[in-house]
Amino acid sequence: MCPKGCLCSHSGGLNVSCSNANLKEIPRDLPPETVLLYLDSNQITSIPNEIFKDLHQLRVLNLSKNGIEFIDEHAFKGVAETLQTLDLSDNRIQSVHKNAFNNLKARARIANNPWHCDCTLQQVLRSMASNHETANNVICKTSVLDEHAGRPFLNAANDADLCNLPKKTTDYAMLVTMFGWFTMVISYVVYYVRQNQEDARRHLEYLKSLPSRQKKPDEADDISTVV
Predict the structure, then answer these.
(1) Nearest by Cα to 64 from 82, 47, 81
(2) Transmembrane segments in this chain: where (predicted)?
């Protein structure tokens, strides 16, 4: 049966069109023989795990122009090998699990999403078949590097390996911390030496200020007698 609100037709396989059907989630009663599935222009916000696992003949999947924010790790399990076209453009996707597109052979359209460019996105795009073309259409809404915001992801990835940034940042912070401790130790040693020098100077001045010992008359007479 055709899902409620959708239109089904046969043209080179079963074509299921659920465009503009006011759907808030992906139908779970999709016919297993579906080849082309159009779910664009709805109000879908997420793609759950294994939602398409029974659609072994699915070649085209259009989920553009929704409000998709979340894509579960195994969302495309069962169709990753057969899918030829995947359209996720014009949604609200900022990030996905690094394994979300594993084994995906489809040409993916993921432009016009508020992507956050970081190591995970770099790993995701590298795992996709149409890596270069897909990455070139991704614009960084935000990024781990502020200077990459508003730029194509491909340019950002060419400028810096986003997966090495945390380590570099940690190393830099460690160096700054060590330098701070070293500076503090040196300052303490210098202060300690100067303080000791000042104390020694004061003690010497104190000794100099003491009155000289006067000889007693009887000590003088003893000395004269001995001579």
Answers:
(1) 47
(2) 172-193
For residue range 143-159, list pLDDT tens digits in order.
Answer: 988 888 888 887 666 66
Closest CA to 94 of 156, 138, 31: 138
DSSP tag of 87: E
3-state SS assignment for residue 167 = helix
From 64, 37, 40, select the one nearest 52 (Cα to Cα): 37
Collect all residues with Cβ–Cβ distance below 8 Å to 76 and sequence separation of at least 6.
47, 52, 83, 86, 100, 101, 104
From the list 3, 61, 60, 12, the residue with the least C-alpha distance to 30 is 3
pTM: 0.70
> Token match 């809404």: residue?
141
Per-residue CA distances from 86 to 47, 49, 166, 221 (Å): 13, 16, 32, 121
The span from the first CA to the last CA of the chain, in angstroms, equals 140
